[in-house]
Fold:
Amino acid sequence: MLRVVDADTTWKQHVAGAPEFAFYVAEKCKGSLEKYKAELGDVRRRLEIFRQACEGVAYLHSLPDPVFHRDIKPDNFLITEEHHSIVLADFGIARAKSDPTLTQVFEVVGTPYYRAPETHHGQAGTVEADIYGLGRVLEWLLTGDVSTDMGTRSVPRGLELDDAACDAFDRIITKATHMKPAQRYASVQALLDQLPDLVIALREKPKAAPTIQDTSAATVLPAALALARAGDRLGWRQLENLLRRDYAKRTTEWRAEHERGWRDRDKQLAFDVTDALLDKVMGRVVFALAGVFSNDAAFTDQRRTISELVSIQDWNRSGIPALTRAPYTVGYVFHYCHGALCMAYDQPKLALQLGNAEILNPDTLKPAPVCKNHDLKGWPRLFGPNYTWSFEYLKRAWERFPVLQELFALRTDFEEGLAAYSMLMCLDELAADAATATPATWEKGEGFRLDFPPMFMAMDNEIVVRADRRVFGDRELVAEVALRRGAKVDVMKKLWPNRQNLFGKFYLDVFDRFGYVDLRLGELA
Amino acid sequence: MTEKKPNVLTATSIVGNWRLAAPLGQGGQGEVWSVKPAKTKRAPLRALKACITEDAQARDHFVREVTTLRK
Structure:
């Protein structure tokens, strides 16, 4: 779903001189699927697009008061700029089931060819009508167009898919777009469930289908690593689907639990559930990271899985405030890991972008307040507006999942990245009033800014992050922080003596492991 | 055929906490702009969809869209 970050639905004059209006602010999108028709990629990517499209629609149907979109077509799926994920747009004609105007009969909505035949004379939205639209979208994705007569287009043979897979897709499209609503899939999930099996039918034969019963992190890691090292993309995909389904199933279960009211009856139980959930979610985090760590080429691919994990924060919307904390923890762990990874890959800019991800306060469901004074002050938002509790959760997850540490041990550059990322976070904390700075205040670690993007250099024996570069009179100085293995002086600890909270301690731990942190000033010729 | 209406909103206007950057699109019921937070410099661009209409039904649709997205 499109992530709305702000909205004001009272009609008033927001701008002097303009008429009154209401507005909302959401993620920016590049454009619709229709617009990017030529650039959608191979069958796998197209199926992934379809899966995301289905999930959006399934979400609408799963609301306590289900909403039917009624105008499903490639034009109405947008590609977001940040994560390249697919979101459903244009609810202009969507209707909630309880809406009294729903039964109004003479209103015809939807777009020809994508519109279910039974709605041609104007009729209420139904699950079946939306499934019809999805069937057409799948047809469009796989064949490049939709049939303009009664039938459906066949998936082209001899290109990317073998004949058996083509037949299977043809059957799915035919069933989803059946003339009689009752003959279609009963739910979006039923349609979605057909896909993972079909992915197996694609070109490659599976080497060994993963058979994991337990989806906790400890089991997932070895399996994921084995697959990644063998370069078994198909097996990887199967495992991913397995985890995804497991996760979706549990989400539904817990949501049902919640609706029965366990949370008010028994708070302890609520926390137990949260812990159990954390186990499973961590399975997916570890899975995604294992992919990143063991197969550099797949780095871009894994980003998708990872950004999906970050969007677990969207759980807020399912109205389970108590549960949101577990996904939050995961969000933090992920952010931290991925931030570190970006640094290791010499991409501080990417790390910062991640740091900018919006995290809503789970209690108020509002975005954390925008920090003032400093451009990079948004960074601590990684850890929520309240460091103490959010960091407590991060730390707990870290301690609880030795598997994470095991994972990190796979890559030494990751550790360096972790240190560099931590360092940047600290610098951001330290950066203060830049206006009154002199070389003397710099030496005390005060008054410098962080350049954006920060300069980051990884050399043989040290990592350097350049914080600031400034002209004082006729001197041009740079302030850098360097990490060096094996040395003992710990300037950062001196600079930062009063960091008694967990946030501070965690970084200091990281620095301790690394050995040495030094803030130094250099003069440019 | 259809003549492009001039935008009602103008670039650099501030709407709530957002500063309008560039128009992205226009529809019967409003305009879509790319926006940045008014107070911070560095942040990803967002899209602001404004519903500018007197039509009660269109207003209802807009509210429904927002509430559905926010659920």
